[in-house]
Amino acid sequence: MEQKWWHDAVVYQIYPRSFCDSNGDGIGDLNGIRSKLDYLQELGVDVIWLSPVYQSPMDDNGYDISSYQAIAPEFGTMQDMEALIAEAKQRGIRIVMDLVVNHTSDEHSWFQQACESKDSPYRDYYVWRDAKPDGSAPNDLDSIFGGSAWQWHEPTQQYYIHLFSKKQPDLNWENPKVHDEVHRMMNWWIDKGIGGFRLDVIDLIGKEIDKGITGNGERLHPLLKQMNQATFGGKDLLTVGETWGATPEIAKLYSAPERDELSMVFQFEHITLTWKDGDKWQPIALDLPEFKRVLTKWQLELADQGWNSLFWNNHDLPRAVSKYGDDGVYRTKSAKMLATVLHGLKGTPYIYQGEEIAMTNVKFERLEQYKDIESLNFYKVRTQAGVSHEEMMHALGENGRDNARTPMQWSAAPQAGFTQGTPWIEVNPNYTEVNVEDDQASSDSVYRYYQSLIALRKRYRAIVHGDFIPVLEQHDKVFAYLRTEGETRLMVVANFSGESLTVDLSEFSQSSAEALLSNSGRTTFDFNKLELKPYDAFMIKLSE
Ligand code: GLC
Ligand code: CA
């Protein structure tokens, strides 16, 4: 496989609204991010994936764009954006923009003009259909944010489709003019010197509405090939698609290099394992054997074809340490365990802001504390359907998106040092213990552990390119694997449980082991009878 810079890279995701507020209005902004570039450089990351900062009425916190070539005033100006790109570049960090082109905001001028009349030249930029004879919606497609995906537009007497909120009308990707507009806009950003794109819900752009098909429509891959050729193809940029429905077979269609589509995709098969029957609002406990089976499958299937994105959380998901570790007594230890497992796998690791200090879920007590449109919509839909308030509050506490969106905890100062004003969403009350300043001052620093993991990635090619070989595959509490390249053999062993246990790794008893990193300070390894304390994890180098 041809080697690319983004194989070696580690990506850090910033949710701008919640990262750092420079002017006291309670909303994180571009100048706040600029003030933290040294922090990110020291961590060692190569790329920032910036969630949307474009002009937007913020119905979905910026994933509803009203102008693609303007910055939302609450985030700053285009000059601030250019300065961020340049200052990041000086530190060896590239900025990956979030490309949201499945839909726009209903306040985008295209949509506003489309609404003027059925004959508007912009009408076909969106998807309109007549009502059924009885006045009802054209079909029963549901919005991903709850309720019907169809919104009646009284003035022009047709429905338009919105797979997300009604303020996020879907673009019509069957219209070549839409392709031209989007490609032109992407090239405009590429010319600004960005490092690539994260393509929001990109698997939906090939939708075939009248057949009720939303994800993975027939036109999807041809559209991506066309986009590749018209924009980022041959430009050595990182492109990562958000693809909820991807199987390994589908992921190869996107990311096999000879197909000229994307660098990689985010797959969510390991994530949805804690959703009962695929329903996010029915959280269930993690089944580690299943989790291992899924991740192992992805490692093996994409070994020589395509490329994995590695992540435990993002701005749509609960905090990793709360979901897969223990956010109580073992908060820092289990966070390091999770980091070891993720960064040891083959693929490009993504760190979500705050993960590097083991920030936790917030679990608000009152509904009013939640701000996320998806959470609030579903609270309404489900309680109206008979689910109890308590059950929905539990679900929001487990899987609601605001868990990831409370402000970044910089210090024990008021509002966690995120803002001088009142934050747009409450800070997690645990900021007095969980914050960057205290973490960095601690001998137990999670940030420094991430630094070490990133440094190891730069030192050992086997971490980036080595083969993945599962170890202790049948074990129901321990995740272990080898990464091998030529003579180099690295092994990761991680206890995913709060129990002490002993494992038999006698097949390695002829080897000697050098500890590269461990979350317990361990330096000796008795493979015949390897004792693991709760959440113990390490990466070692084996030699004969
Ligand atoms: C993606 C984003 C999410 C957003 C949705 C609609 O899933 O990650 O935050 O709400 O698309 O744009
Ligand atoms: Ca601000």
TrEMBL record:
<dbReference type="InterPro" id="IPR017853">
    <property type="entry name" value="GH"/>
</dbReference>
<dbReference type="GO" id="GO:0004556">
    <property type="term" value="F:alpha-amylase activity"/>
</dbReference>
<dbReference type="GO" id="GO:0009313">
    <property type="term" value="P:oligosaccharide catabolic process"/>
</dbReference>
<dbReference type="InterPro" id="IPR006047">
    <property type="entry name" value="GH13_cat_dom"/>
</dbReference>
<feature type="domain" description="Glycosyl hydrolase family 13 catalytic">
    <location>
        <begin position="13"/>
        <end position="405"/>
    </location>
</feature>
<protein>
    <submittedName>
        <fullName>Alpha-glucosidase</fullName>
    </submittedName>
</protein>
<keyword id="KW-0378">Hydrolase</keyword>
<dbReference type="InterPro" id="IPR013780">
    <property type="entry name" value="Glyco_hydro_b"/>
</dbReference>
<dbReference type="InterPro" id="IPR056300">
    <property type="entry name" value="SusG-like_C"/>
</dbReference>
<dbReference type="Pfam" id="PF00128">
    <property type="entry name" value="Alpha-amylase"/>
</dbReference>
<keyword id="KW-0326">Glycosidase</keyword>
<dbReference type="Pfam" id="PF23915">
    <property type="entry name" value="SusG_C"/>
</dbReference>
<comment type="similarity">
    <text>Belongs to the glycosyl hydrolase 13 family.</text>
</comment>
<dbReference type="InterPro" id="IPR045857">
    <property type="entry name" value="O16G_dom_2"/>
</dbReference>
